[in-house]
Amino acid sequence: MIPCINIDEFHRKYRIVANSANGNCLFESLCFALPRIVPHYAGLKPKTLREDLARVYTQMLALKDFQTDEPIENELLNKIKIGIQYDDDDDGKKHHEKIGKDRVWASMTDVLLLGFMTHVDIYLLTLEDHQNIRVDNMTNLETPRGFVMLYYSNQEHFEAVVPNGGWRPQRTTILET
């Protein structure tokens, strides 16, 4: 069963950090949240993160494991591989070939790969019904540096989620904070 948090409890504990819905929302959200977990990312710009993601896609596709139909033993890498294989944009082009360009909307495969790249668990929060917010650990890393929370509006829009009263980086799960 996927954990949920009551929407009233969510609003007492957390706030959503709005950003523009212009195709850069995932990168803007992560550039806001990542430095609060890993100081190394201070000053990270959305354009740089997007370019890094495109570069890692290219590197992964050159790996032998990504050139066969065989599953990869690592569950996260296998999800990324499947995402790369089937993630086509509306114009029929492969998503990974276009994500390096500004204002190209992100995909769930991008979320997975960004979590892998940064060694940070990414929790995706979505409205389950009018009373609950569903909480999915998208990356489920074995030894993450910490975690970030993103609200996903089901309309391909990502926004950072932060605790009310400031940022408290933790290595626990969102439901334990």
In short, what is this structure?
With 177 residues, the protein is α+β, with helices and mostly antiparallel strands.
Biggest sheet layout? 6 strands, mixed
Strand and helix order: EHEHHHHHEEEE
The tally of beta strands, per DSSP, is 6
Low-confidence stretches: 168-177
Shape assignment = globular
Describe this structure in words.
The longest helix has 16 residues, at 46-61. The protein has one domain (4-176): Cathepsin B, Chain A (Alpha-Beta Complex), CATH 3.90.70.80. Residues 168-177 have low confidence and may be disordered. It has helices at residues 7-13, 25-37, 46-61, 75-86, 95-98, 108-118; strands spanning 4-6, 14-17, 121-127, 132-137, 147-152, 158-163. The chain has 177 residues and is an alpha+beta fold.
Keywords:
177 residues; single chain; 6 helices; disordered C terminus
Please render the helix and strand layout as text.
Elements: E1 4-6, H1 7-13, E2 14-17, H2 25-37, H3 46-61, H4 75-86, H5 95-98, H6 108-118, E3 121-127, E4 132-137, E5 147-152, E6 158-163
Parallel strand pairs: 3-5
Antiparallel strand pairs: 1-4, 2-6, 3-4, 5-6
Helix pairs in contact: 2-3, 4-6
